[in-house]
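User: I'm writing a tutorial on reading structure tokens. Could you give me a worked example: one chain, its sequence, then its tokens, then a sentence or two explaining what the tokens reveal?
Assistant: Sure. Here is the example chain.
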Amino acid sequence: MAIKFQYNKTSLQQLEKQLKMRERSLPTIKSKESALRMEVTRTRDEVHALEIRLENEIRSYENMVVLWNEFRPDLISVRDVSLSTKKIAGVVVPVLGEIDFEIKPYSLFNMPSWFAGGIELLRGLARTGIEAEFSMMKLELLEHARKKTTQKVNLFEKVQIPGYRDAIRKVKRYMEDEQSLSKASQKIMRANQEKRRLKEEEVAV
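And here are its predicted structure tokens:
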């Protein structure tokens, strides 16, 4: 990133202001990145644990596969999922609340006795599946925010702060050189004036 500047005092002040702003912001951004990194790791573990749990739950019902052929899947459905949000290191993420299931009425006399248990099993499976989906969504949001924050840290640390420091150094050096040249010019002018004055005095004598 090329930093635009001019070789004057106003530009120097602007550069110094921009540099200070970035140097002050950097520790906060680094702290946010660290918090997000930890949260991403924790959420990734949570997603992994939920996926294993879901897999194990599905596997444990495989021995009932013959019975499931008799089951009516339309008996249970998800009516509503309540959601809220919370901020984690400045990132708004969804929070899963209650899952409202709709269970259609059925005859306890005409249906097999295990249907009630089957409904509960499906309710548990659905809950784990929805929890896993939400954790994955949360992970994606946090991962995206962490990447953006890391990019900002790198931009400040490796590009902008060194760039502003370099620009300030160039402007200061230019201004110092200009000042030295001005002083040298003044000395030459004074010396020339002195020579003229001495010549004039000689002529007068």
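What the tokens reveal: The chain has three helices and two strands. The chain has a mean pLDDT of 85.
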